[in-house]
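does this look right to u?? S-adenosyl-L-homocysteine version
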Amino acid sequence: MTSQRTRERLIQRLKEQGVSNQRVLDVMRVTPRHLFLDEALSHRAYEDTALPIGYGQTLSQPYIVALMTELLLSLGPRRKVLEIGTGSGYQTAILAQLVDQVYGVERIKPLIDKARARLRLLGLRNLRLAHSDGGFGWSENAPYDGILSAAAPNMVPDELLHQLAPDGVLVIPVGSGEVQELRVITRQGDSANFEERVVEQVRFVPLLSGLSR
Ligand code: SAH
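got this back:
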């Protein structure tokens, strides 16, 4: 189930869906997605589908992970990236292999604990995780060259815009319904102006405020 052929088929599917960044495809090919799932579900790890990780949350669909990562890197390499909604840690693992330093925040304590253990097992060290509310970003380490949110707010929190470095890119689903808009928001140089475009319709869990133990 977790064979090289199964993984290769997933990469082929991502290409067919328009993912073209070779570095993103290469990293997704070698990252063991099955390690981010409970054993009972790990045989489905290389299907292009979102899968439950407990606590009412899901591990994002591989296509969505690839698309968001590609969008984050679309203006060139990113040094420091903030990830909101670490969940299983899979997206964190992908990012850690593509940028210098990843900061991840997650509001559900058991999820961040599990993610931390898995990422350590994989030997990924250029990351820091925190149990905190990502709606406020993570100001201590700001500014970020990129911010990626795996949970959808109704409106883009100002804090996230404020924590973007010059020419920083924010990739975020926005909306209150079942379906949201995936937006790419780019800070224009070091100004307080932001360019915004809608990429496609997506389905994410809502960005909730406050922490869960
Ligand atoms: N990238 C993750 C996606 C998990 S789903 C993965 O592939 O596994 C989105 C996650 O966002 C959930 O784990 C949810 O608990 C988290 N989340 C929701 N609101 C949040 C907030 N305000 N701060 C931090 N994390 C949040």
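The mean pLDDT is 97. idk if thats expected tbh
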